[in-house]
Amino acid sequence: MPEYKTYEQKKRFYRSKEWCGKDGVRLEALKRDNYECVQCKKEGKVTVDSIKTPGERKEVKLNVDHIYPIEHYPKLALTLDNLQTLCVYHHNVKEGRIFEKKKNKWAGDEWW
Ligand SMILES: [Zn+2]
User: Fold this and answer.
1) Distance, CA 1 to ligand 1 centroid (Å)?
2) Which residues, other chains included, contact 12 with Cβ-Cβ below 8 Å and sequence gap of 6+?
3) Chain centroid to CA 91: how far?
4) How many Å lie between the centroid of ligand 1 and the Cα of residue 53?
5) What pTM was computed for the model?
6) Cα 79 to middle of ligand 1, angstroms
7) Tens-place pLDDT, residues 21-55
8) Do the beta carbons of residue 84 and residue 91 sit within 8 Å?
């Protein structure tokens, strides 16, 4: 069973073809979620990557997130049901990079 605890281990995983190759689960998750942030969708908004605009600089807005982090659930690293497409903003919210100081305020929130 592989482990994804260190930065190096994670980096290796996120570069693997099982993850980001053309038949990787990352792409499968994006396709399943219609290349939209699932959280924005719940809020009635559509957030998609801007890859379709030719000539413009590609701006990555979507991440494929592990609902149960691979660090603690390595078995679920390549399980499609454990993946969700999130925009950078919602990914940061989920990872606690935003609203850190207001954590208690959000603790009773039903989102997660
Ligand atoms: Zn979003």
Assistant:
1) 32
2) none
3) 6
4) 20
5) 0.75
6) 21
7) 999 999 999 999 999 999 999 998 877 775 555 66
8) no
Tell me how far apart the alpha carbons of residues 85 and 33 are, in angstroms, rounded to a whole number. Answer: 6
CA of 61 to the centre of ligand 1 (A): 9
What SS3 state is found at 102? helix
User: Going along 1-112, which residue ranges are E strands?
Assistant: 62-66, 83-87
Q: How far is the CA of 17 from the centre of ligand 1 (A)?
A: 26
The H helix count followed by the E strand count for the chain is 6, 2
- How many whole angstroms from 85 Cα to the centroid of ligand 1? 8
What are the pLDDT digits (tens) for 61-106? 899 999 999 999 999 999 999 999 999 999 999 988 765 554 455 5
